[in-house]
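Job type: complex structure
Entries:
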Amino acid sequence: MNLIPKYLVACLGRYWLIHTDYWQTISNRVEVATPLNSWKRLIEGVYLYDHGINPYEGDSFHESPIMLILFHFLLKKVPYLLPVIFVLLDALTAHILYKASKSFIRIFKESQESGKGQIAEDSITMLVTESQLDEVPIYVLSMYLFNPYSFLNCAGMTTTVIQNLLLAVSLWGAASGHRALACVFIALATHQALYPILLVVPISILLANVNQGCNKCSYIRTLLGFVLCWGFCIFISAFIMDGSYDYIYNTYGFILTVPDLKPNIGLFWYFFTEMFEHFRLLFVCAFQINALALYVVPLTLRFHKEPVLLATVLIALSTIFRSYPCVGDVGFYLALLPLWKHLFSFMQQKFIVGCAFLITSALGPTVWHLWIYSGSANANFFFGVTLSFATAQIFLITDLLFAHIKREFTLKNGSSRQVDGKPAKLVLR
Amino acid sequence: MGLLSDPEYGSVKWVKVLKKINFPLCCLCYVGSILWFFTLAHPEFNNETYFSENALLPGLVRNEFNGEHSANKFFNEFIQELEDKYEDSNEMPVDWLVAKMSQLSLEVYTHNFSLNYPFGQGQTYKGTNVYGILRAPRTSSLEALVVTAPYRSLSNHQKGTAAGIALMLAFAQFARPQNYWAKDIIFLITEHEQLGMQAWLEAYHGLQQETSTFYTSLGSFWQTGFDFGKPPQIFEWLMTDHSKSLDPGVLKGRSGSIQAAINLEFHTPKFKYIEVKVEGLNGQLPNLDLVNLAHKLCVLSDIHHSYQNSFTWLRSRNNIDEWVYSIGTMLKMSAAQVTGVPNGNHGLFLPFGIDAITLEGRELNDPAGDPPRAQYLSTRNFYLLGITLERVLRSLNNLLERFHQSYFFYMLAATNRYISIGQYMPSLCLLCGAMLTRALCLWVTIQQDEEIEKRQDEKDKGLKEKKSEEILENTEEKADSEEKEPLIKDVIKPKEDVINTKEDEIKTNEEVVMAKEDEINAKKAAIKAKNDEIETKNGADLNISIVNVGCNYFLVHILGYAANCSPEYFNYIGTTYFDQTPEASIFYGLIALSVFYLFVTPFAFRFPTFEDLSMTNILLLIELATACLAIGMHNFPLGLLIAVLYTPLALLVGVVGDDCRKRSAIVLFLKRILCIILQPLFVVSIALILYSWVLFPEEGVLSKMSRGRDATMQGVMFSVVDSVIYGNWLFQVVTMVIFPTWILFWQILCNRVTY
């Protein structure tokens, strides 16, 4: 197994980073820590809870009560082990992603086999071969383990580490057909960050495909399972908070109404600092619909045959448009991209997107420093950089989708693209 | 969505065009960028400065400063005191200053600081700052202005600052009874030049010594763990900050947040003109409004003033003359910014978000050199200087909030002309654009090659399959014919035997056929295996390329980080084992390191392929472009200088093929020479040797060289020490960004691959 050195290197790297002087800087970076997931706020909330003060009464803590008692337990019992725990959880996420991608590959192979009949003759060579597919899980693993974004996320000890784990487990559960597992973990993830609710759609499709049988029954069962689990989470949380549901205002309410406008890599903060107060509700609704509901239906209609692609794209879109995104989320969906390695040759903006990712990642901290520490730049500079970062991500997603469509088309119609003897052009509308 | 349309149609065209014109295009960008930079100095292309902040209300007050007499008195007394008691010592007359300030009924404090010099044998320097706070009668010490002057002893080789200190005291005496101050004024006299200033600022802003670690962030939860839960010794060692050497101590008295600061450097009361110095740490600049304020108020007070190469008394109608002067000013300003070393105490305020400038009085025979026609200028005195200072401070007193209106990113072409960030950035962007274009071109080349390869592979596969099919057919035919042969024999043989033998033979034939089929199957399998092999090879190539490139890239940056950390160790080795000065040990250590890297790094890249090296080249170009942009945002001249130096190399370096033609060998050799010349340490050495060439033209070649070497040694040492004490980034940038990119260039040039 050549995986173990990879895990070792990645874990040691993360562990080392937590113990350097850079830890404080990393864990306070706006790119890494948002009001939702930062370590500082987590420990503050746990401290308040430990002293018998309801942490949801103030404005400092926005994690779910389940996380609160989990970390209360950990901080009380094994505070010195927390770096190890975070590192191991991240490694576990990577491993589960590895497992999940193996299942995804199996599904992909099956669908490729079954669809072989409809493929044009000269496109047969375009089919993905076994050996190519077998490498994919390793790529996914390495992409998660050595991605600087997930590296920083883990070193900053944000709760996004746990969020990623929950998402990974639910994806894995769905891919291997464990309905209960998928439902429980997607419910937990939703309970923590709300946006993973989008994933219910691809997961239920995936479960129906994997388990075969009555599709509608399967959808209903998944949905029911999810709703029950989520309800249970909400109830349990209320139970933890002594039967009071007030925490919802400070968790879901906080995510939805975006009261804390501390800059982050998302698109909300700048817009709402500039906003007149009485338009706020309208635009909050518009932005949240954009993040939560807008893309699910059209994408599901188009890509219901490819639930894995749908899941990837939905995770990515909710990461871009959510109210408090951080680089940990970006690192997670980037790790899923190697699943679509066979689409890379159809993608057109790889270079632009790559450059944009690199340049914005370097310029972001630069202009942040100029704005906050030197006082010479201002918010517009930072927003400009985050905006182009978001644009780059959107380009990546649309490019991926379009590449998929192009490949589908080419598989079906052959690689020569001619209409009446003239070269034709595919246009995405 | 035109961008997202299927680009295969027509894409070949732009790729071809790009490949054809990429080199001339990049060269054009390069030349264009440099031309753009120099064009900016022309009055047509830059703008007249203006006041953006309305609250400043410059020059609206009637001057009341009447302290010329007392300034002269303070000056004479101070000089007397220095000559009497501090003739030979470097110490600051703390008692005298405290006494004088107390007499003016300021709140006087002293501030002690110490420096554990990080290099050499670990000496400790101590120093004292004296400061007095004039509490504003109108508000409750929420905001403050700082007037500061460095103390220089009589034996100091630099110009003294006695007149500045005297003026400050006289101004404090004048300002004390006034009732219009809305901000505290802190009068600060610092010892040991910038060191004292840095210590005072750190103490004022309460910069903590220890950085918080994960374990300290646990707070009270920490106690609840088991005993073995304490971090092992190694972590404590890791957690302590070794780089911290300046102990700023504590301040006994503070005021509010500092809005602006004026640093005074006046040697004598009789000066010819004022030089306004703006360049700060890491090339940071104060808000243009403050700079403008100083210049405009000098005009109002009828004081000649200058900035770098721009002198107010030399105004020409001729645009070309103006242009040449402006170019001189811009280049001098860039030179001052590139090193990142502040050229006055004001520069240390800037990283704290406080705008500050230095006013330096200059007379004839100044160390900075005499400007043309300076001898015809009439000398100015304390009175004019005093009213200028009063005007500046009363304008600052009007400020409602910090400077934020005008530009922070600008270049000055003259005392009254500026170039904004939007105007100068294109010249840097053009250079970065050239590098990115080159990267795009390389990317497109690889893509096409890959596609061609794939197609060839597919063709090969197709051919092989055909061949294998042919083989199959052939063998089958053979088998058939063999089957037929015995049949013919059978006909000749007696009929009785026929049936049995026939059956037997058919059986054997069947066996033969079976065996043949097996063979064929085996062949098929072999062919399949071969195909698989080819596939896996393709896959493996791609795989290796990512791991190989990534590891190499990572390794090279680690090497850069090692170079960044090395001075501490070189200093230790040099001073203890070779009995050298820290300068020499660090300098020679870095040279040794460079030579080591020069010979070792080309082999660090194991078994590179064409794609590997191309990919490295692309990444390298993108990294360099990004780095130049990011550096240019902080310190434009530094970013531009790096881009100007390395863009030619970036455009010329390409993956070296295996073909050994003579012409290409010579070209390659020249490229390698260029690469070696552009090695960061080498560039610095050459630059400083040339500089000493210009500075001491009369000396012999060898002594010039040795002067250049000494200057380089000092320069490297300064950059290392500055990075440790003040947080100057130059050394870090060079070792951790420029050096790794250079190593990558070198690797690409030194590895030969087959296409």
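Summary: Residues 7 and 91 of chain A are 7 Å apart (CA to CA). Chain A has a mean pLDDT of 88.
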